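Sequence dictates fold. Below is an illustrative record:

_____
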Amino acid sequence: MCKELRTKVLRFLPPTPSGPTVHQDQADGADILRCTAEALKEGHVVGVPTDTIYGLACLAQNSDAVRKTYDVKGRNGHKPLAICVGEIQDIYKYCKVNVKEELLGDLLPGPVTLVFERSDLLNTDLNPFTSLVGVRIPDHSFMRRLCQMCGEPLALTSANISAHSSTLEVQEFQELWPKLAVVVDGGPITDQSRLGSTVVDLSVLGKYHIIRPGCALSSTLDVLERKHGLSADSDK
């Protein structure tokens, strides 16, 4: 069923009577994972739930899919996409990590994006204008398992038209559905802040720089400063 060109809306929850009048399937988690992974491997862009807001995802190593993601959002081509992986060890494949693994474990999985120097293994067409890349491990079992099934990182960005509000339910980005192969409806996301993840640059040894405060700023600063002794990078 994943080979159809029309959007597939796959729901973990029963569809509501007032829901959109598009083709919808109720399926168990394994079927949804399999269908979404297949769409990604075919080079499509999908809509997915995370631990903070709904996102758009594609295979980060697929240059055509990355370009599609920018097109779907109407996103400025010089704004970077983060990558999403399933396990902390995966970060070392695509990033040059210069902090202790304990620090990674204190923040991930969770609503935090960590920015490091990118490794040579990462697709050069992903954010070619910068040597840095942000990496996430959402505290969301579906997303982590999806990364594991794909066997490579996902490029991940918010599911909305660029400069519009972040979304907490799939109906809020319904205007994007025709451009997506699969929309995974995991139900409403309970974090009502719509702030997305806290983004912190850790590319300078011993320093941190908050790029976006996001929804987990206080707890992130506590880990960086109190537990690991990092200081704010005053040069940024």
